[in-house]
Specification:
163 residues, 2 domains, Arc Repressor Mutant, subunit A, 2 strands, two-stranded antiparallel sheet, mainly alpha
Length: 163
């Protein structure tokens, strides 16, 4: 029985001693925790400031880019306005004048001229063909395929047969 009482007293003393040690270390642990929290918040604040600076630089770059694009847009608008005025001047000059030769219709058949349907690449073929160049020579000279040149020559021949 004395052993049980003795063990009870020792157990109570150990619990009291343990609680006393914990209380002594608790303020120390709180200060370590507080130091870590202050360090964390300082790092967080620094990163936030860096982020705000990066956003400010990005905003400044975007503003400069938008201003440049706005200037380009204004320049393009001025060019379009100038082109519209030139177009109007040309229209006023063209009133009462004869249309361009490529657009002249064959007055007898009321059909457009054969040359008016040719692409710009093909408009050099008829003069070369009438000058005596062969289809392969014309194709080589103009950098076109022989089939393309042959097709245009066939169209010319049919047009001459009709006329």
């Amino acid at each position: 029985m004395w052993i049980q009482i003795w063990l009870g007293i020792v157990t109570i003393l150990l619990v009291v001693l343990f609680m006393w040690i914990l209380r002594r270390q608790a303020p120390n642990a709180d200060s370590v925790l507080q130091d870590e929290m202050e360090s964390f918040f300082a790092e967080f604040e620094r990163e936030n400031n860096e982020m705000l600076e990066a956003i400010a630089r990005f905003k400044q770059n975007m503003t400069m880019q938008l201003n440049g694009q706005a200037a380009d847009l204004n320049s393009l608008r001025e060019q379009v306005t100038a082109l519209h005025s030139q177009c109007e001047e040309l229209r006023s000059l063209m009133e009462g004048k004869e249309p361009l030769p490529e657009m002249v219709e064959d007055r007898e058949t009321h059909q457009p001229s054969a040359l008016s349907f040719l692409r710009d690449d093909y408009k050099e073929i008829p003069p070369l063909y009438h000058s005596g160049f062969s289809v392969p020579d014309i194709a080589r000279k103009l950098g076109l395929g022989s089939g393309e040149v042959e097709m245009v020559v066939q169209m010319l021949k049919k047009n001459q047969e009709k006329g």
